[in-house]
Every structure is written in structure tokens, then in C-alpha cells.
Queue: 4 jobs
Job 1
Amino acid sequence: MIGRIVEVADDRRHLFVSRGFMVVQDTDGERKELGQVPLDDIAAVIANAHGLSYTNNLLVALAERCAPFVLCGANHNVAGMLIPVAGNYQQAKRFDAQIAATRPTHKRLWADIVRAKLQQQGSALEAAGAPTAPLTALIRRVRSGDPDNIEAQGAQKYWRLLFGDEFRRDQQAGGTNGLLNYGYTVLRAATARAVVAAGLHPTLGIHHSNEGNPMRLVDDLMEPFRPMIDLRVWQLLKDGHREVNPDTKRALVRVLYDDMQSAVGATPIMACLHKLAVSVAQVYLGERDTLDLPLPGLPLDLAASLSE
């Protein structure tokens, strides 16, 4: 399930399919070919420019491979996402199991996700040299369904500890928020691919319930991985990179290929996302009781770069 995240961020580009490749072509002048990527190597395509055009054949070919086509707004947030209708041979069976899942099951799973997120936030704070006690103290207070909204309480403490007292999370802002937006867009695309490939419907969430959000399950499952993006943004800021540009985009995309510790050893984050999505399906089907969440700790490559 490891593939390439391909971003097209320049205007005047045309994307089409040729002999099993996605081809990027300049639309000015002689319409030169700028590059090719094998379709089978693509995990997601992120369209992050205003002057793009693309063929229906390309969108169909990506959908057949469970590779989302992501449309970004000016703030680097997801404005839309094309995902396949069918992503797994057991899809109908798993949709039925999703629909039939009980409220107690969802509450139990959400508590596990919140604990995992708090653990990873603590790991991010530890790597940044910030106090971890305010986060770790909250973990044991998480109850089924998180009725006390410990996740939100943790977020209030976490942002201040990681980025300073003046920081406010604002999806419409640039700078630090723009970097976070872009990182989350990439993470969301990879999570959507994992959800669809596991035969689950992205709208049928565990906790997120906004009626206008077609990606509720995706937003549920990406929560424990957000701190890895946050820490990379912290590192970029520390190194003097404060805006979204080609270099910072590459750094944020690379997070998905970092190894995290899992029950079977070091595993790339993109593979961890797939394992988590499959475990959700297995819980719904009664094949297991717990989610396959990554173990607490930093991605190994990220930890190595911070120690340099």
C-alpha cells in the first residue's frame, strides 16, 4: 500500500493518461511533456493550482487504483476529493457491518483513538523539549465516547506547549497554520485511500458527525497521526521555514514514509494507516476487539533528524 503522493502545484499544466503513466504537460508554447509517473505507483494526486486541466480517463484510472484526486483551495485545505465507488471485494459486506455497528462500539473505538492521539501528542512535545505531563495526565481520564471532551482539553494545552502562547489554530491563516493545513491535506488523502481500500465508507464515521462532511471516518482515523505532521512543522519553523513552498511541501509529504513502531515492528505511516483502516473493518465484522493503532513514539526517521 506504499505509493507516491504526487502534487501538481504550477498553473498551466494538463494531466492525462498514456500507456499506464500519468503524464504532466505544459499548456504553453510547444506543450512540452514535463514528466511521467506510473499510475500503479500513485497513492494520491494533489491538485494545488488554479490553472490545471485533466482528462476523465485519468480520473477513472486513479479511481480504479483507489488513489484519491484531491482539490485544494488557496489555504492549502482540501476543497474536494474524488474517491472510487468500489475499493474492496468485500465492500458491501463491510458497509453493512459499518451501518450495523452499535453506539457502544463506536464510543469504545473513539476512546481508543483519543488516547492514541494524546500519546502521540506527548511524544511530539517530548521531541520538541516541551513538558509532556499536561498531556499524559489526561490519558487516564478518557472514558468511553470521551464525554468530557478530553481531546479538546488536550488540544488547548498541546498547541500552546508546542508553538507558544500566542499561537491560535486558524485554518484560514498562513504561516504556521498554512504549513499545518498542507500537512493535514496530505495526511487526509492518504487516510482516505486506506479507508476505501479497506472496503469502508468514508462518510460513516466513528465520532465525527458533521452532516456536511463526507469524510467523517477519514477524519476520525487520521487523528492519532496528526502530531507527526505537527512535529515536522515545528521542525521546519525551528529551521527558519515559515511558509508553504516546494521545499516545505516535500518535507511534509516525506512524513508519510517515516517508520513508526507498531505491533509488528517499524512500519511506514502510510502502511500504519492501512492497517488501522483494516482493523476497523475487522472490529465491525467481529473478527477482532481492538484497533491496530501505532505504538507511542516518534517516527524513526523524524526522531533521527531531530537528534542531528
Job 2
Amino acid sequence: MRWGLRLSSWAGLAAIVAAAGLGAWGWHHWQGQRGLVALIEQNAELRRAIRNLTHESQIGYAKVTAQEVREGRLVTRLKFVETHRADPGRRLLEKEYEIAGDVVHFDALIVRFAPELIESGQARALYLWRRVYGETMTPEEGFAIETPGDEPRRYAELCKTLSLADRQRFWQTLWDLANEPQRLADKGITAIHGNVVYQRLRPGLLYVFKITNSGDVTVETVPDL
């Protein structure tokens, strides 16, 4: 039998099931199967959304190159390396710093996007490394990591979607933009704020920095093999 009827309602589908001789049992079974498929699909979407929200990318690492006592004070020399978010083996920046003491702070500026954009995979948090400073220093005395106002190379492709005026304003006046909620909302941004992680550093270890798509920065300690 050929069906010339275009099905556009559940009633039409019910008619097919009944005509096929499956009756009420067949209809409810079919509904159950459809419900199961929908549940699986929804769960798959939920898992993707959770993965997008919580996924971590490596964005750099630090290691101690020397640690010694000078005139009664411990001094730590360290190397900071920024790595490509999609390719941790690719180095974007490498600098060395000498810090009094062994507790070192790593300061970044974070741009967070709306959760629905992250869940769908349309956006993920941006970050700008700002400075490194020790426990006995004020943040203002910290050593710069990236040049303030410069557009980071890692975001060159992303920024092609913005006009030149917007690109310059975005990277040069991030702090001002943080206080313009309507302008942020227009770009799907929920917040712009600082994030500092710090650690007591020791030779023989790597301190690996990671960021989630939603903008949380963490530091993990692993052996320097």
C-alpha cells in the first residue's frame, strides 16, 4: 500500500501505526521508542554542553631555572612560557623573571561569555596574561608578560570579525569596557575581570596553567621530565 497522505501531526502517525495492524500497543510502543530516542539525543546535547563549559585548555607553564639565597634572602629565577591553546607544543611567548622569595603570582585578565554561547560551542573565554610578581612585591611592581594594549597574536583570527575601530577599542580599553554592561551584552560577554593564581615554586617541577571555556584559570604541578 502506498501512502499519499503527508503526515504533519501525531494523529496522522497514530493512524499509520493502527493501519499497520499494530493497534494501541504498537502506538504506545512507538511513542516509547521515540521518547527514548529523544531522551538519548537530549542527554547527548547535555553532555556536549557540560563538556564545553568545563573543558580545560593548557595556556602556558612556568619552571624554576635557579633558586638561591643571596644576602640572606631567597631568590627565584623562573621561565614563563605561554603556549598555544589548541597546540600546547607551540610556544607563543617566552620570558624569564627574577623574583624575591619563592611564592609567585601570575596575573591574567579574563573575558567571560554567556553560558549559552559556551554550551553551544559558539564562544569560549578569552584571556590576557598581564604580569608576574612575588609575595613581597605589590602588583604595580610586577613584571609585564604581554604589552598592554597590544592585540595578542593568538586572537588575530578571531578579531577579523570585528571592525578595526572595535578591535582597537576592545584590546586597548578592556577595563573601561568592563564597566559598560550594555556594550558587553551586545557582544555576548558577561564579565571582564582579573584572575590571579599563585604557587610556591620549587626546582624540578612544571607549573602548568589551564583555562576552562567558561574562564576559570588553574595551575597544576607536574614533574619536569
Job 3
Amino acid sequence: MSASTAVKKSGPSAGATARRARKPRRAGWWLPYALLAPAVIFELVIHIVPMITGIWMSFLKLTKMYISNWGNAPFIGTKNYQVALDFNSAVGMGLLKSFGITVAFTILVVGLSWFLGMAAAVALQKVFPGRAVFRTLFLIPYALPMYAGVIAWKFILQKDNGALSHLLFDNLGLPGDKPFWLIGDNAFAAVVIVAIWRLWPFAFLMLMAGLQSVPTDIYEAASVDGAKPLRQWWAITLPLLRPVNMSLVLVMFLWTFNDFNTPFVLFGGSQPPAGDLISFHIYNASFLTWNFGSGAAMSVLLLLFLSVVSGIYVLLMNRRKDNA
């Protein structure tokens, strides 16, 4: 075949490709962008712009002297970060202690909430009379408004007139004086209990939804082979719920480590040392001392920590998934 024949045969296809490339946009191409625009704008206004502003504030000496016109606050570079990370100073030592308390708080709340949610989801997996009633009761703490639930716990944990002290000491007759639940060393246990009460129904809901996709035939076959319930849970339930658990644990970790509402409503304006969670610590460092630059630096450090931990967690889980 000659070269001219080849050119003629290839010419129409090349021309068609060019015409397709110059094809005008179809009508209504802008509609998806228009529908996404409000969400993008609100995301910028509510999250991105305040985050960038907070990062910029962390490099300023933004005290009460400049709060009326914070744009004139002097730039001090990384001095706020140096003060926050100087663990020999009072500020750094307080932040480090609060970080340790928050780590312990997060481990207990996330671990126990996941355990309770898993136990309840497995217990309600099989059909039995009254299962819908138990599901509804278990979800009440999650459906109840957060402030109403924590305020109710605040009344329950009062020293003299609280329901817990009345039950333990007046009704059950425990010896000794009624303890303070919201101050002193008991404050840590109090905030952990309230946080678990709020969080475990979410774990139960997610795990219960995940269990709906597990075929019952697998459990029946395992029972025929002689597998006990604990063995079935370990060999069947956990592996099949791995995708749900990956997302669930990460979300609960972020929510719990950043929890501000629970200690703020439970303890009021000033938390006891045993309940000094880091989000509340940063709030007090900003609004009690009026040093917003230092508080912004602590917030950025918290953001970096959570980002690094979340990234490592996702990488490890994906690597484990690929090796499975």
C-alpha cells in the first residue's frame, strides 16, 4: 500500500478526532459545579479560612493588648511554639501533663466504647422477642442532645444531692463520707464514664450495621464444624468487620481526643487537674490568660499530632489489608 493511500485512509479518522476535540460543551455542563459551589464556599468560610487564621495567629504575640486590633500584633516567629514545647517551664509542663491525661482518657473511652458496642451488637445480632426494644434503648444516649445528657450526668454526680451518692450511701448504706465526683482525683473517672456513655451507642450502631452484611450461613457452617461462639467471633466476625472497625476506631479517636464539650459542661469554666483534657487546656490557655497566640500555637501542635497519628494509622491499616 502506497504512502498516499495510507494518508488518505488515516485522514478521516484524524479529522474526526479533531472535530471531537473541538466539540462544544453540552448544555448544562455548569450545573454540577453550581451545586457544589455552596458547599465549597461554606467549607472555605467555616474551616479553611479560620484554620489559616489560627496558624497565622500562632506566630504573633497576640495578647489582650492587641485583641481589639490583632492585625497590629507583633510577629514573634516560633516563640509561642518554643514556650509550649519547653517542658521545663510551667506552660510546657502543664501542656505535657494535659497531653498525658488526654491520651489515657482517649485509650479508655475508645477501647471501652468499642468493647461495649461490639458486645451489644453481637448480642442483638440474632432475632429474639424484644430485640427492637433493646436497640432503641441502647441508642438513647446517642439520640439525646449532648448538652442535655451531660447536664443530667452533672446532677447525678453531685456530692450531696446527686443520684449516685444517694444510691450508694443512702440506699445501699456504704460506709464513709460521700465523695466529690467532679473535683479531685475522681474527676477523671467521672469524665471517662460520661464520655463512654455518650460514645458507645455510636460504636454499637456502626457495628450493628456492619453485622447486617455478614451471612448467617457462615455461622451455621461454623457451628456444624464445632466452633464455639467465641471462636466464631474471632474467626468470622472480626475479619469481616475489619473495614468498619478501621473507620470506626479512627473516627472515635479523633472525636475523643478533641472532646471539649463533655469536660466543659461537666466541670464548668475551670476543670480540675485530674480532668484537664487538652482541648479544655488550650481553651483556658487562650481565654483565661488572654494569650491567644500561645493558645493558637498549642492548637496547631494538636492538629499536627492528630494528622500524623491518623496518617500512620491509615498507612498501617492499608498495609495490613494488602498483606491479608
Job 4
Amino acid sequence: MKPLALYPLLSLVARLIVAGAFVLAALPKISDPQAFAQSVISFQVIDGALARYVAIILPWFELIIGIGLLVPAIRRTSSACISLLLIIFISLHASAWQRGLDISCGCFGTTAEPTTNYSLLILRNLLLVAATIVVMRRDFKVHSSASMVAI
């Protein structure tokens, strides 16, 4: 089997993993926005009022773009949004690590990650970024091939 023949399967697996991660991360935060707001505040980047808005809006956005990764019509937009969010998350973790903060990121709810291992958090998010790149690359290739056929 040619390596290029495996690319659609790799893209599907990457899509399922990233979508699953974002949906699973969103659900506990949606069910307990106050606890997530505390996690947001602990990063010491935004204040309490704004943190409450982030705690309400961000999990729903994560849920929508996670599901959107499985919907062909919005897959590319969802991939781009997920990549951007992951880069922001990586920056926040790196900043907290550099400032010596020992906090739970609240990524998968407040009890899922009781200790902070910033190197693993950053690595996990980098791997998820790589997976979204696989998805976007495959989607752009399929979309551009379909455009060439239409011409």
C-alpha cells in the first residue's frame, strides 16, 4: 500500500482524535462554569468579570468547533479555529510555567488534572496542532482537486 493511500485514513483518525479531545474538554466546563472561571483566573491574565465570560463562551465554542471538525462544510474553519486556540493555550501554559504558577489548567474540568506538568500540556497541545494541520492539509488537497475537476 502506498504511503499517500494512508493519508485519508490518517486524516480521519486525526479528525476524530482532535474532535473528541475538544468535545470531551468542553463538556465538564459547560457543566461547571464557575469552577472553570476559577481556572481561567488562576492564569492571572484576565480579571474576574472577563474570566466569567470566557468560562461561559469558550467551552461552547470548543464544543461547536470540535463537532464542526466532523462536518465537511465547516471542517476547514473549525480546524483553523482549533489550531489558533491551541496556540493560545500553548502560550498561556508557557507563560504560567515561566512565571512559576502551579495551577490546574482546567482543560478537561477541574478534577481531571490535579497536578501541573507544563511540558506534557505543551506537548499534548503541539501534537493536537500537528493533527489539525494534517486535517487542514488533507481538506485543502481534496478541495483544490475538486476545483480542478470542475474547471
